[in-house]
Recover the amino acids of this structure.
């Protein structure tokens, strides 16, 4: 892939990821369990990871967090988002590099790490009480992470080589 | 798009370990959450600093600039919040020790405290 094509692809994937973030903001989420999000944006990061590699996945994730924070969230929102995204990215890069995990495993691991990254920041701001949410969020992460992993793998397969 | 694109597997056996690890973490969390004894009072905190404590056995309302907390029938809930997501308002009422409702945007937490072991300590 030429440098120009790679730059264009990264820009495209970052834009798609940002749109997925926006779509997520539009969906009124389940009221029964607090703090649960579908995590669609991770589909974009996963597709980048599988097509362009970890470095570009990191770049796309960072662009998404900063732009989504600027457009739809507050400063503390960016802080949570950044902590979640960083934790998710580290776990996904490691699982991906291990080469024994499929897209579902990488995605679920990332979703679970995202929760603990965010809860860690929340715990710093508000104390350990926030961990009462963790079990519900972890269960949700298995479902949303699994679905996003399947979607990401299908997208990567459908892309022209 | 390079050779990586052809190698993506949706699911591999090892993925079960990731899912199992997450399930175990959730199960341990649920056990910890659901074995909590009933609490006696709530602590309302902003930015982690406790600003009020209210007994759970007396119906009451506590107003903050951006939130209203209500106690009814021995349970506490977030009656109002000015944030857009309203996650805390939709949260189920709390009454067990260490249960908590968090309003992330306003950095308000409501936590149940007290309970049998605390009572024992006081009465002895």
């Amino acid at each position: 892939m030429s440098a120009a094509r790679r730059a264009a692809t990264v820009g495209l994937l970052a834009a798609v990821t940002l749109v997925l973030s926006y779509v997520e903001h539009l969906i009124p989420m389940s009221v029964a369990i607090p703090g649960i999000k579908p995590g669609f944006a991770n589909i974009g990061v996963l597709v980048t990871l599988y097509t362009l590699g970890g470095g570009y996945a990191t770049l796309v994730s960072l662009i998404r967090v900063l732009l989504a924070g600027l457009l739809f969230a507050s400063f503390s929102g960016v802080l949570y988002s950044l902590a979640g995204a960083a934790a998710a990215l580290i776990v996904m890069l490691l699982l991906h590099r291990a080469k024994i995990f499929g897209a579902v495993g990488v995605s679920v691991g990332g979703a679970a790490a995202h929760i603990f990254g965010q809860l860690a920041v929340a715990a710093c701001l508000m104390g350990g009480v926030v961990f009462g949410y963790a079990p519900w969020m972890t269960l949700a992460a298995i479902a949303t992470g699994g679905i996003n992993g399947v979607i990401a793998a299908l997208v990567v397969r459908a892309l022209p080589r | 798009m390079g050779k990586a694109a052809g190698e993506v597997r949706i699911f591999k056996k090892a993925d079960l370990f990731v899912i199992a690890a997450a399930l175990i973490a959730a199960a341990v969390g649920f056990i910890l959450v659901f074995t909590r004894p009933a609490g006696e009072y709530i602590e309302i905190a902003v930015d982690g600093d406790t600003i009020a404590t209210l007994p759970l056995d007396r119906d009451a309302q506590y107003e903050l600039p951006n939130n209203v907390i209500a106690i009814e029938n021995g349970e506490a809930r977030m009656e109002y919040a000015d944030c857009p997501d309203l996650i805390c308002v939709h949260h189920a009422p709390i009454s067990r020790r260490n249960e908590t409702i968090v309003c992330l945007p306003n950095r308000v937490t409501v936590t149940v405290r007290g309970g049998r072991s605390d009572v024992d300590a006081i009465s002895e």
